[in-house]
Structures are given as C-alpha cells and as structure tokens.
Amino acid sequence: MSTELTRNFSIIAHIDHGKTTLSDRLLEHTQTISEREQQDQLLDAMDLEREKGITIKSHPVAMKYKAKDGITYSLNLLDTPGHVDFSYEVARSLAACEGAILMIDAAQGVEAQTMANLHLAMEQDLVIIPVLNKIDLPAADVEKSKQQLEDILAIPAEEAIPASAKNGIGIEDILEAVVARVPPPVENEDKILRASVFDSIYDPFRGVISYVRVFSGTIQPRQRIKLFATDKTYEVKECGVFTPKMSKRDQLIAGDVGYVIANMKSADEAKIGDTLTDSTHPCPEALPGYKEIQPMVFSGIYPVDSSDYENLKTAMGKLQINDAAFTFMSESSSALGFGFRCGFLGLLHMEIIQERLRREFNMDVISTYPSVIYEVTKTNGEDVIIDNPSFLPEAQEIEDIREPMVRTFIMVPSDYIGDIMSLVMEKRGELTHTETIDDLRVMLTCELPLAEILVDFNDRMKSMTRGYGSMDYEHCGYRSAKMVKMDMLIAQEPVEAFSTIVHRDKAETYGRQLANKLKEVIPQQLFVVAIQACIGGKIVAAERISAMRKNVTAKCYGGDISRKRKLLEKQKKGKEKMKQFGKVSIPQEAFIKVLKND
Q1: Which domain covers residue 99, as residue numbers?
Q2: Is there a single domain that holds both residue 86 and residue 67?
C-alpha cells in the first residue's frame, strides 16, 4: 500500500485509563482479528501484564480500515504502557509515529501521567487526538474533562472525541479522526533505506527479531543490511508486519512498522534505537533517535544456588534485548557469592524483571535492598560515581557527597494537601509550586531525593488520598547532602552485605531497625553476640543476642554450694575465651531474610 494511505499512531494515557481496551476494540472494528481469536488485553502477551492489568511492553499491530470515503487505509497502532517506570517504552513508540491518541478517563480527568506522556508526544511534534473514555460510567463528567483539556493541556475541547472503549462507543469516530488528522509518513527523497529499531525480542530458534519503523527505502529478504551502532552487516532472512501475530511479507516499504529477522545470534548485537540501513548504499547519518536511558535504581541480584550463575547471566542477556533500560554487571559479595549489580528505572521495573527471570527462565534469585547513584568529590579533587556502598571512600577522603533529586508532580484532591505536604517533608523534600487544577484537585510540584521515594512513597501517597492521588517524576540533577556510610558489625566484624548509604539524620532509626531484624535471624551462639550499627567509629544503634547456656550444675544435686560456684566460674572463663576467638557464622537464610526486598 502506498505511503499516502499509511497512518502510524500510538495510544498514550495515564495507567488504567483504557488504552489496551481501546486497542482491543480497534482490532475488532477493523476485523484484524476474527471473533474466534478475540480476548481481553489481546496485545498484552505476557502473563504478568494480564495478572497486573498493566501494559509493560508496547506491541505494534497493522490494521486495514475502509474509511467513509471508500478508501482502504493501512493503520499501524502502537499500544503503550501507562506506568511512570515505563515512560522509555512510550518515548520509543512515539518516535515511530506521526500521531497519538491521548486518552482521558472522563470519570477521573487529567492525571499526572497524562501530562507527562503528552509532553513526550509534543517533543516529537506529533498530532494529538484527545479521546474522553468511559463516558458510560455514572461518575463520568464529560464537560469537566473538556474544561481540563483546555485549561491544563491547552487542547481545544471541540477536538475531543467522547467514547467508551468497553462498550464500543465512538470507535468509528476515533478511526475516522486518525485517517483525517494524522499525516501520512514522509519519505526521504533519496530513497535510501533508513529504518529505526524501536524494540527487539529474542527467539531461541530464530535469534534476534528486531521491531522496525521504515522511514525510507525498502527491506526485503536476502538483502544485506548494516547497523550503525555496531557497524556489522547481516542478511535479512524474513520481514513482515504484526496482525497481531507475525505475518510474513515480501517487503517493508517507507512508513511500515514491522519486524526483521536477520542472522543475529547473540543478545549483544541488537541495540534499541539503532538505525538499520543498506550495507552497499548506506545512509550518511543515523536517524535522530532515542536518548540513552539511564537507570535510576540499583540492586544486587544473586542466584540462590551459586551453580546457576552462568544461567542467570545468559537469562539477563536475553532480557536486556527485550528491555533496553535494564543494565547489569558482575559483582561478588562475601555473603551471597557471585551475582550482578543491576540497574532499573524504578521499583516496578525491578519487580517485573525479577518476576520475568523467575517465570521465563526458571531462575531462583535473591535481590538486595535498592540503592541509587551518588556523586562523590574527594579531597584530592577527583569525582567518582558510587552505586554500591562498599565502594564509598573513607570519610576523611570525602569533600562532598551529592544525591540524585527528582522533581515530583503529585495530583491530589485538595482535602489531602496537608497530609501530602507532611509526607514530602518527612521524606526530606520541599514543595516548590502549587497549582489549582479545578475546584476539587491541586497539583503539587516537589523536589525530593530519589532514595526517599524508592520504597514506600507511592504506596503511602495512594493510601493517604484514598487512591485518588497520582504522581509522576523526572530526574532533576544532584544536590549536596549529609550522606554517610553505615556499617553493621556482628561480633566486632563488619559485614559488607549489610552496609548502606543513609542520611545522617535518619541513620540512627535505620540502624536500630536493621539491628532488630538481624537479632531475629542470626542464630544464638555459645557466647554473647553484639550487633552494632556504626558510622565511622561511632556506634549509633546496638542489640545483643544472649548466649546459649548449658546447665553445668545439673549433675550437682545437694552437696556444698562451692562445687556449683566452681563449675559456673569455669564456664564463665570458657565463654570469655570463646568470645575472643569465636566467629559468628551467618547462615544464607539470614542474608536472604534481611536483604530480600519485600
């Protein structure tokens, strides 16, 4: 089909505003899938996506639609995730499109992630088609949502299409709007092959399958192609489109979104965001593409059985093909053996990766407590990046420590402002801006340390606002802070696996919590074991595990008391000696219980 009759578009929205349901209705309406194949969340291929009701991977699909003008158009749809952790998936999908359907839940209105995804689309200069979804709900307020469109997003209210993806209302209007408003792809005049790799998956039988958007030229089987990043050449074995299963084609032309199977055997060869071109007539420069995604959260992942190390490494390599934002490098721990230091975009991303390792590769793994990257300036002027507490220089060598900050946008009902401000202050944040959205809701802009929002910030914000609050965040540089390294000493011996970087004001509280946890999991010894949280040479929290005591006087029944005293004195000396030479052996289960990120 000619480029003039092709339309490429994405669906973007806040989480749970109905993107996947709309994509199901579009596939049904265009008869891309038969009635027999119909099921909910059709484009969500992973079990995890279905269980959690979220989209993790964007999945492309090609549809044919006969418009009211009698012409049949080729529509390429990319459904996108809505969770803040997967905004990189949204950015990659938008780079392959000319337009975007912006969905807004008519019952909830504009949310934090709605604005974030809209800004991503506007950066790519995409045509925005606003859709007010769930108009059939009793709580839906279409007029108020239209007002928010104009006031908050600066989109004319008359452009909005009222719809209900669940009941199939307004689907025809959405398809007609895509055909009328989204511009066709524009091919480069030189017709040289330029295709952007926006995703890829690994197939154990066919190698790497690259998802591509062709900007100019054609791709066909037996053609020699070259990748810009690696400068390696390959032969195309197969190409095609998604309908939504892989459907083989003789060629892909400009404007098409599809897949390419070349003879790529290993995970390292495919780079997300790379430009694919003809090896004999390459294009002069790579396509302007995706920014490199920087991981924000780090955690150690170790195999429970140390013999699984190589299998875990292979599994992570295959996952990385499918997830460009996931990074890993080898590390070892005296407690947990050999494993990997992994980088993630956030806690949900980390949870999904661990779950995929367990399900898709049958790997049993332990993950350590998540941490962030710190910038350290040493007294000799050298700047170092620290993502692991064990690499932090000694206190006397440190001039300054800077922690990563995030600018957080929190949308809440105005009744809950006081609670949220208290939470922000507790997390060492500051409120920089307050904006009234409508008569019921406000948007708070805050700056917080990333380490503070990692674990429970979102959960507590949701529970404080009865589920009505929403948040989005972006990285906003580094700021100096009073960060210190806290070591845990067990029987006067530091245990590297329990070291952590904390703010000085919170060190005592955190040290006490960790010492209590360790007291519960470390087995009793024949001598008293001291558990101490220590900053530099100062003990900030301590617990003790009492000794196991053998009743040495059991054999003395009656008789002189001095006999019992003599035996107890002998036992006391033995314990003193044991305390000097005794070593505490911490079992693997104790590490798993304490380090595992619950």
Answers
A1: 3-181
A2: yes
How many domains does the structure of the chain reveal? Answer: 5
Residue whose tokens read 């990385």:
320
- CATH number for position 264: 2.40.30.10
Q: What is the DSSP string of 452-473?
A: HHTTTHHHHHHHHTTT--EEEE
* Distance separating the N- and C-terminal Cα atoms of the chain: 52
* Percentage of residues of the chain with pLDDT beyond 90: 0
358 and 386 share one domain: no
Q: Helices in 101-195 by DSSP H: which ranges?
A: 112-123, 142-153, 171-181
pTM: 0.67
pLDDT for residue 62:
83
Which residues have a Cβ under 8 Å from the Cβ of 374 and sit 6 or more positions away? 385, 386, 387, 392, 401, 402, 403, 404, 483, 501
Report strand pairing: 207-216 vs 194-203: antiparallel
Which two three-digit tokens encode residue 376? 């350290």
CATH code, domain carrying 335:
3.30.70.870
- Which CA distances in Å does 140 have to 23, 107, 317? 21, 4, 45
Instruction: Give the mean pLDDT of 399-407.
Output: 84
C-alpha torsion angle, residues 575, 578, 580, 585 (rounded to 10):
-120
Token pair of 29 as six digits: 């309406």
The backbone region for 80, taken as left when phi is positive above 0, alpha when psi lies in -120 to 50, beta otherwise, is beta
Single out the residue in 465, 480, 495 at which a domain terminates: 480
Q: Please enumerate in sequence order all residues whose Cβ is within 8 A of that of 333, keeping only pairs 6 or more positions apart, or say none.
A: 300, 302, 339, 496, 497
CA 561 to chain centre: 68
